[in-house]
Amino acid sequence: MIWREENMSSRIRDLPVVVVTFAIIGLILFPFFWMIISSLKPSTDLLTRELQLIGRQLTLENYRGILEAGFFRFVLNSVFMCTTATIVCVCFISSPAAYAISRYHFPGRNSILAMVGFTQMFPWVILVTPVFMMFWALRLVNSYLGLIIVYIAITVPFSIYMLLGYFETIPKVLDEAAVVDGCSPLGVIFRVILPISLPGLVATSAYTFAVTWNEFVFALTLMTQTEKKTVPVGVANFLGQYTTDWGVVMAASVVATVPTVIF
Q1: Cα 5 from chain centroid?
Q2: What is the CATH number assigned to the segment(s) 70-229?
Q3: What is the reported pTM?
Q4: Coil, helix or strand for 163?
Q5: Contact residues for 51 (Cβ-Cβ < 8 A; gap 6+)
Q6: Which SUPFAM superfamilies match (predicted)?
């Protein structure tokens, strides 16, 4: 009886915390709910002065509009470039670099770590002009390869730090055992370390994909041909100078949000 009373009193004490938590979650999720509902409303319901959570009628015309506008071409462009950049960044650059820094103590190790961290201390926008001039000279403007290189460059530093912290938790005896069995340094990385580092690789891949998927400035600058633009630039194209079809914008925003929600 006493235990039940204590359990009930503890639940009552926790009730305000639970209510506040759900209220915060509701505030966070409400914009997404509003975006989805708005994408299903006709323009007449969106521009009314009357507050309507769910309109008088729901329609898929806005999604038909982005389909006819070729928006899914932008989705394919983003999926291809972001997936390629994520695989190259995480598996072939950040993982070997993080492994080398975590396992070997060589001259300049601390300087390299400091330099990697320093690259995250200034905004990427200051690099737009020099990158554009360099890529123009190399004929990488309006090139998938050029934007993939940029995506890799801006995500590698933080990816190294993420994987470095994970690799340092893996016992070095596993490396030594693999070397005794005849593995080369690359064999140790790809056959031993990476398979048991799957949670860290997934987290780093999710970060890398999300950053590249949402990147706007470089995609806008380096991709001037319509058929090669990415999702963020495609969404911005629906914003007119004088008028904007907000139903179409909301539909495009819903489609643009799906991959990041999945990751």
Answers
A1: 47
A2: 1.10.3720.10
A3: 0.86
A4: helix
A5: none
A6: MetI-like
Q: What is the DSSP letter of 226?
A: G
Question: Distance between CA 37 and CA 251 in Å, rounded?
Answer: 9
User: Taking a C-beta distance cutoff of 8 angstroms, is the pair 209, 148 a contact?
Assistant: no
Annotated domain spans of the chain: 2-59, 70-229
Q: Which residues, other chains included, contact 170 with Cβ-Cβ below 8 Å and sequence gap of 6+?
A: 193, 196, 197
Q: Write the pLDDT tens digit of every residue in 29-54.
A: 888 888 888 888 887 777 776 666 67
Beta strand residue intervals within 64-135, DSSP E: none
Q: What distance separates the 2 farthest-apart alpha carbons in the chain?
A: 81
Q: How many residues does the chain have?
A: 263
| Rounded Cα distance, 230 and 242, in Å | 23
**Is the Cβ–Cβ distance between 223 and 80 less than 8 Å?**
no
pLDDT in tens, 142-182: 999 999 999 999 999 999 989 998 898 888 888 888 888 88
Tokens representing 197 are 């580092």
Amino acid at 137: A
Helix axes 109-118, 95-103, angle to 10 degrees: 140
